[in-house]
Amino acid sequence: NNSIHxxxxxxxxxxxxxxxxxxxxxxxxxxxxxxVVIRPGDKVFVLKSRSSKAGTCRVFARGIIEKEETDRVxxxxxxxxxxxxxxxxxxxxxxxxxxxxxxxxxxxLAAATQPANGELALxxxxxxxxxxxxxxxxxxxxxxxxxxxxxxxxxxxKYLDEDQAIFFVLDVFHQPILLPARPDVVFLDINGSRxxxxxxxxxxxxxxxxxxxxxxxxxxxxxxxxxxxHIPINAPSRHRL
Length: 241
Known about the structure:
241 residues; alpha/beta; five-stranded antiparallel β-sheet; 6 helices
């Protein structure tokens, strides 16, 4: 149960001048929107069917890999039923750490598949609440959204009521945050093209203050510097080095 009587006050992050250390980078990995290695016992999320939007799938359910078959992977769902799935429709579920995303589609897919039921999710830079909607559906728990633009928060509140999400209008760089509890998962999107130093400043601050099970960050510059091999040749020119 994440409800507590006292509010946690978190001060704004300190200035950030240095690059991330090798140890900090070692805890980061690029979000894999499709499974690469098939191992029995691994947790996965199944993408059940194609949606009307080209290149996207409808998220379906969590499961555990039972075995690899000829051109399918047999997955066991929570109710004990099994299903043979094409490997391209499986997303690995990470146990924890820091996931880096380049695009909004990757970021929102991570929100729909990575948080667990009952976890407390926080998003910094929630904009109009699109990712928060996915976080609520994944966790079945009230989500916390933060954005410095009041007009964006007003829009988000139209899509999610108070039982689904709590929204705060504030600038995390200059105002302290009051939270009902420490979040289990944190999503960070302060504009995907934001200066790398600014992104790293928040990343380190979140890790020190909250130590969430999972931190998901959307940052083009982070990918350019630390995961350039994950930028496809058909990516927008602003995403390529």
